[in-house]
Amino acid sequence: MRKTTAAACGATALVLGLSGCGASFEGSGSKDAASAEQLAMHADDPWDTVVQIDPVKKCDTPLRDGVYTGTGKAMAGNVTVTLLVDDNRITCLETTQDGETQSVGGFETVRDGTFAKMIEAAQGSDIDTVSGATITTAGVKQAVDDALAQAANVPADQAKSGN
Q1: Does an H or E element contain 114, and which?
Q2: When you count CB atoms within 10 A of the terminal residue's CB, does the N or C end of the chain come out lower?
Q3: Are 105 and 131 in contact (CB under 8 A)?
Q4: What is the pTM of this model?
Q5: For 161, what's the count of Cα atoms within 13 Å in the CB-facing half-sphere?
Q6: Strand order in the sheet with 78-86
Q7: What is the pLDDT of residues 98-148, one digit of tens each?
Q8: What is the rounded distance in angstroms from the CA atom of residue 121 to the CA atom of residue 36?
Q9: Nearest-angstrom CA–CA distance, 162 and 152
């Protein structure tokens, strides 16, 4: 009986001792996965940009009303911007990208609408460069200039919109 009791107590102690060894950050066996998960829980989103849009601000360049689509060269493909011009006020209807890498600045700022908000706030292509998305930002500016050149009916390389 003593051996059975001792074995049961030993097994119970072993089970209780090992119960803390389940999959967790440190015990999961993957330090990379643990680090990424911990970082995601504690790090600020580097592409989370607060953009203030003035609802009455308009583009300084005279533009024809309509919907215009422009294209620019991004890091791994093209960026397309579709703009609505109404009474010289620009509304970004859509930004799309081809080939940008997921979880990298350009992909994220196109997907989450940051570039669209920046275009509307600037009422043109004079937007801030997004950290981690420098080349994509340049492509977005190029796409906006292309669309606004169509609205102004001037060649894109001569159009420079802004405040």
Answers
A1: helix 114-122
A2: N
A3: yes
A4: 0.65
A5: 35
A6: 66-73, 78-86, 89-97
A7: 877 776 667 888 888 889 999 999 999 999 888 878 899 999 999 999 999
A8: 33
A9: 13
pLDDT at position 54 over 90? no
One-letter amino acid at 43 equals A
Average pLDDT, the chain: 78
Highest-confidence segment of 33-47, 48-62, 87-101: 87-101
Q: Above 50 in pLDDT, residue 86?
A: yes
CA distance 25 to 90: 47
Residue 149 CA: distances (Å) to CA of 8, 69, 70, 126, 143: 82, 10, 9, 14, 10
Is residue 80 within 8 Å of 96, Cβ to Cβ?
yes
Residues 90, 69: Cα–Cα separation, whole Å: 12
Tallying the residues shown for the chain, one arrives at: 163
Residue 94: phi and psi, rounded to 5, are: -165, 140
Identity at 155, one-letter amino acid code: P
